[in-house]
Design brief:
alpha+beta; two-stranded antiparallel sheet; 111 residues
């Protein structure tokens, strides 16, 4: 009977870990739009995050006669967020994607 409890506990622990990983992966693949924002579920931070992302772009570069360039047109072909870490508490496992209005209402003192 003790073995069954251990196996059951291990299964529940693995299921919780898998769900946390799935939620974290789902959030990290999503970049907030105009109606959403990130929120740290650990400390409530809404404003400071370290974001590591990868972008694939096509750019039009205009060179002057001296050889200096400036980008005059930029098209983002693909963009993915690899990691998001809360600048306040350092957690990367508690980042949530929430609506902007809910985030402001749910966290007094932050805008």
């Amino acid at each position: 009977m003790g073995l069954t409890v251990g196996v059951g506990t291990d299964i529940r622990r693995a299921a919780r870990a898998a769900r946390r990983h799935w939620l974290r992966t789902k959030v990290l693949r999503m970049i907030p739009d105009q109606t959403q924002r990130w929120r740290c579920g650990g400390c409530g931070n809404l404003t400071r995050f370290d974001v590591t992302r990868t972008r694939r772009t096509t750019e039009f570069w205009h060179f002057d006669l001296a050889g200096e360039h400036r980008v005059e047109d930029l098209e983002v072909k693909d963009e993915s967020v690899e990691s998001v870490r809360c600048r306040w508490c350092g957690r990367s496992d508690a980042i949530e994607l929430v609506s902007r209005s809910t985030a402001v209402e749910g966290t007094p003192g932050q805008a």
